[in-house]
Amino acid sequence: MRSCRVCLESKSIAPLPCCRKVLCNECLGLYVSSQVRLAKPHIRCPIYECRGYLEKGLVISILSEEDVAKYLYFLELSQLDSSTKPCPQCCLFTTLKEPNSNRSEHKYKIQCSNCQFVWCFKCHAPWHNGLKCRQYRKGDKLLRTWASVIEHGQRNAQKCPQCKIHIQRTEGCDHMTCTQCNTNFCYRCGQRYRHLRFFGDHTSNLSVFGCKYRYLPDKPHLRRFIRGSVCVVATKLLIAPVVLLLVVVVGALALVIGLVLFPIYYVCKRRKKQRTQGSRRW
């Protein structure tokens, strides 16, 4: 009988292969399931001091059938190169052969053999006949309109501030991590998570990095004024000790230089005086 590192209950537990620490099946299952829902293909060991990864067989043995299918899909997706992409509708993987000499956009037109869905391999979107990928992304007003609609207290989808793909939240908090570029952003306002010591982060009400919906959302000018004032005060509080320390260091350095140079100056002056008096005797 060994004690679990999470729930602290004594159970018959087999140690983890990577670090030989013990974790019960219930706690390990909850952790692995949460990582799969975050689309993590490589799952780190839940033990904080361990930097290893859980083995594929161990992960599969813990998950349910539905989560196993998701895990295998994310794992296969992470191992693919740029020549293979999943179908946007049924997720069937398709490999684009060597492009032909024809330079038209039709070389990226793909029809899924499973669901017959026609899509663009280049931008991973439904096929846009007569439009280039850049023009399609720029003029996709239907997607942007649908994403901005608020239902059940939240937006239908939020755009990643880095790679610009739309992400829909099904559960959890506002802190989102893009599965494509690993950017951390807020689902509520769409801004990146930033943190600076002594100045707060995105969850702080009075921080300049804070979410605009957390503090005075209906009074943006007052919110900016208060947060800016707090930032100025924090800056002064940080600069004042630095200036004081600089003054102390300069004063101490001047004192040390004075203690070293004054005896030398005194000895030199005394010898010069003695030489002058000796020359007068002759």
Automatic annotation (TrEMBL):
<comment type="similarity">
    <text>Belongs to the RBR family. RNF217 subfamily.</text>
</comment>
<keyword id="KW-0833">Ubl conjugation pathway</keyword>
<comment type="function">
    <text>E3 ubiquitin-protein ligase which accepts ubiquitin from E2 ubiquitin-conjugating enzymes in the form of a thioester and then directly transfers the ubiquitin to targeted substrates. Mediates the degradation of the iron exporter ferroportin/SLC40A1 and thus regulates iron homeostasis.</text>
</comment>
<keyword id="KW-0812">Transmembrane</keyword>
<dbReference type="InterPro" id="IPR044066">
    <property type="entry name" value="TRIAD_supradom"/>
</dbReference>
<keyword id="KW-0472">Membrane</keyword>
<dbReference type="Pfam" id="PF22191">
    <property type="entry name" value="IBR_1"/>
</dbReference>
<dbReference type="InterPro" id="IPR013083">
    <property type="entry name" value="Znf_RING/FYVE/PHD"/>
</dbReference>
<dbReference type="InterPro" id="IPR031127">
    <property type="entry name" value="E3_UB_ligase_RBR"/>
</dbReference>
<feature type="transmembrane region" description="Helical">
    <location>
        <begin position="237"/>
        <end position="267"/>
    </location>
</feature>
<keyword id="KW-0808">Transferase</keyword>
<keyword id="KW-0963">Cytoplasm</keyword>
<dbReference type="InterPro" id="IPR047551">
    <property type="entry name" value="BRcat_RBR_RNF217"/>
</dbReference>
<keyword id="KW-0863">Zinc-finger</keyword>
<feature type="domain" description="RING-type">
    <location>
        <begin position="1"/>
        <end position="215"/>
    </location>
</feature>
<dbReference type="GO" id="GO:0008270">
    <property type="term" value="F:zinc ion binding"/>
</dbReference>
<comment type="pathway">
    <text>Protein modification; protein ubiquitination.</text>
</comment>
<keyword id="KW-1133">Transmembrane helix</keyword>
<keyword id="KW-0479">Metal-binding</keyword>
<dbReference type="GO" id="GO:0016567">
    <property type="term" value="P:protein ubiquitination"/>
</dbReference>
<dbReference type="InterPro" id="IPR047552">
    <property type="entry name" value="Rcat_RBR_RNF217"/>
</dbReference>
<dbReference type="InterPro" id="IPR002867">
    <property type="entry name" value="IBR_dom"/>
</dbReference>
<keyword id="KW-0862">Zinc</keyword>
<protein>
    <recommendedName>
        <fullName>E3 ubiquitin-protein ligase RNF217</fullName>
        <ecNumber>2.3.2.31</ecNumber>
    </recommendedName>
</protein>
<dbReference type="GO" id="GO:0005737">
    <property type="term" value="C:cytoplasm"/>
</dbReference>
<dbReference type="GO" id="GO:0061630">
    <property type="term" value="F:ubiquitin protein ligase activity"/>
</dbReference>
<dbReference type="Pfam" id="PF01485">
    <property type="entry name" value="IBR"/>
</dbReference>
<keyword id="KW-0677">Repeat</keyword>
<dbReference type="GO" id="GO:0016020">
    <property type="term" value="C:membrane"/>
</dbReference>
